[in-house]
Write a structure and sequence with these properties.
The chain is of the alpha+beta class. It is built from one helix and six strands; from the N terminus they run E-E-H-E-E-E-E. Strands 2-1-6-5-4-3 form a six-stranded antiparallel β-sheet, covered by helices on one side. It is globular, with a radius of gyration of 13 Å. The model has no long low-confidence stretch (mean pLDDT 89).
Length: 85
């Protein structure tokens, strides 16, 4: 589960990234992380700061409890996410 930012870190200093390698579950593949757009980061940060369980984006949603991005049209398509400060 993700933890809240420290009081000294503002939401604009927090970026979210998703694991974008071809097979995000692969242990042998090098990890590749991609940044969400500025608008998506605002949506994610607002939901996170309001302690919402999910953030809804256009094609996917963010599950904060499990630190996952889940495709709206196929819930079996999941990718890890994380915060970067």
């Amino acid at each position: 589960m993700l933890t809240g930012s420290s009081a000294s870190t503002s939401l604009k200093d927090v970026d979210w990234v998703w694991k974008s390698n071809q097979n995000p579950c692969s242990e042998s593949e090098s990890e590749k992380w991609s940044h969400y757009s500025d608008v998506e980061n605002l949506i994610i940060n607002e939901a996170f700061s309001n302690k919402q369980p999910h953030a809804m984006l256009d094609d996917c949603y963010i599950d904060f409890e499990h630190s996952l991005q889940i495709l709206n049209t196929d819930h079996s398509q999941k990718r890890p996410i994380k915060q970067v400060v």
